[in-house]
Amino acid sequence: MCVAVCPLAQNSFADPTTQKCVTSCPFGYFTDSRDRTCKQNCSFLFSDTGTNPKSCVTNCSVNLYADPLTYKCVSVCPPGYYKHITRQCVQFCPYGYYLNPLLSTCVILSNCPSTYPYADNLTHFCTANCSSGQYGFLAIGATTGGKCLYYCPSNYYANPYSGKC
After folding, report:
1. Bridge partners of 86?
2. Beta strand pairing status for 20-22 and 13-15?
3. 125: Cα separation from own chain's centroid
4. How far is CA 155 from CA 8, 51, 148, 152, 158, in A?
5. pLDDT digits (tens, 9 = 90+) for 113-132
6. Cis peptide before 53 (omega within 30 of 0)
7. Are 59 and 31 in contact (CB under 8 A)?
8. Is 101 buried (19+), middle (13-18) or exposed (0-12) by CB count in 10 A?
9. 22 close to 38: Cβ distance less than 8 angstroms
């Protein structure tokens, strides 16, 4: 029997190479659940090799990130792009996130590494030294989670030589 759309109940997809409904697409093709077809390119979606079967998706699998340049899910973002918790490769870390230069990943303040303990709101980087005019403040005994501030908190004083409170 010929059908216009492959049946969802059978979890099948239209294979353009055989003109049949198949449960797994041929090599080099991805399942597109929007129209139940096998596609070589996922237009405006991301091809995810981490799913089984390989699929066209809006959100990449765990440990894969949506590359806006290739429309593929990748484990390493392209140069100039960074991993974000939303499983996307981004050029800039959004508000509230800071670039961890060791991992090329956008992280929250408390996840800045001890080698770059200060979160700089101007650059959105985890940094060892704050931007000009700011002072690094780290709670007593803490090795991470520091902030770059224009003014030190009460009972702390700005040290212009070290750039710290």
Report:
1. none
2. antiparallel
3. 15
4. 66, 54, 17, 8, 10
5. 999 999 999 999 999 999 98
6. yes
7. no
8. middle
9. yes
Three-state DSSP class for residue 122: coil
pTM: 0.71
Length of the chain, in residues: 165
List, for residues 79-123, the tens digit of each pLDDT value: 999 999 888 899 999 999 999 999 999 999 999 999 999 999 999
CB 64 within 8 Å of CB 88: no
State CA 132 to chain mean position distance: 29
Cα–Cα distance, 75 to 59 (Å, whole number): 13
The torsion defined by the Cα of 8, 9, 10 and 15, in degrees rounded to 10, comes to -10
Residue 165: CB atoms within 10 A of its CB come to: 18
Higher pLDDT, 127 or 47: 127
DSSP 159: B
Burial class (CB in 10 A: 0-12, 13-18, 19+), 61: middle
How far apart (Å, rounded) are the C-alpha atoms in residues 87 and 74? 10
What type of residue is 120? D
